[in-house]
Each structure stands twice: as C-alpha cells, then as structure tokens.
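re: that chain from earlier
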Amino acid sequence: MFISKNNYYLYIENTKTLNLSLIKKRNKFIIIYRNNNNHENIDQLKRFRNECKKRSIKFYIANNLHTAVKCKADGLYISSYNKRHYNVRFIENSFKIIGSAHNRKEIHEKKNQGCKIIVLSRLFKTDYPNKHTFLGVLKFNLTKGNFKEDLVPLGGIKNKNLNLLRLVKANSFAILSEIKKKPAIIRRLF
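^ sequence. v structure.
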C-alpha cells in the first residue's frame, strides 16, 4: 500500500485512454475529461459516463457546460486559463464545479467562479519544457492553510515520489501524464 487518500483525480484526453476495469475501489475516483483539440462525440461520452456511473466513478467535463449537461456529467472542470463565469443555478444540486489554478491569484479567481475544489498545479518538478517552477510539499501545505477550499495537488506525481504524498496535507491528489505513460499506477494507489 503506497498512499491512501479520500479521492484520486485522473485526467484523460480520450475515453479510450483509461481502462475502467483497472479501477476496483468505489467512490474514490474522479475522472476529468479534458479534450481541447477535437469535438467530442456525445454518444461516446454518454457511454463512457454510464460506464463510470456503474462503477461509482465521478465524471467531469472540462470547460464545456453544454457537453457536461448533455452527458449528465457530475460536474464541470474549469481550467486555469478559463476566466468565464458559468450559471449553474438551473442544474441539479449534485452538479459541482472544480477549478484549476497555479498561484494564489488564480485560486481567488476560481473561488469567485464558484469552485469548492481547486486543483493546484505543479506540486513536484515536471519534465515539461518552459515549466520549471513547482511548489513542493512545504509550499503546498502553507498555501493550503490559507484557504478553506479543498486544494488538490497536481503535477510531477510519479511512481518514484508517490510516497511523498503522505506529507501533503490534502485529502486527494490528481494525476495527468502518469496515467498516459503507466496506466497500471492505478493499482498502486491503495
């Protein structure tokens, strides 16, 4: 057993990327579908959503309220670059909004957009070009102490530093690139 948190956020860009049969735990996984390049096939997203529902996996769609409502997603994910305010009062109460931020200014912006959960990016050093800054465990914990919203760490989380997540004062964490490279990491989360 490596790490035990209340929730695990998994970012996917394609519904075929993730094999849902690898996920055994119920009510712990949240999938964020983030496809900025292509138009979504609504029928395929609905099928994927239904499969998630059968396995008690929450499903969020990024930056597209219309698609999220059409697919009956659990909520909307708002990327850090998205400054738009969404009117979700007409949607059922279980519909949630998750935001993404890289700094304190963006955290405040996401609070104003109605996000109760904010994914704070780059916990550890990443291999992305032109992205050299990262928070580290100490800065993340200090930032988390200043906000009552649930902050979820993202960035640089790999097999080799998975154990360091025990030091992070968060109930959840998010994984993006490691899911693409090594989908079997899901098995190691327990």
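Residues 64 and 188 are 32 Å apart (CA to CA).
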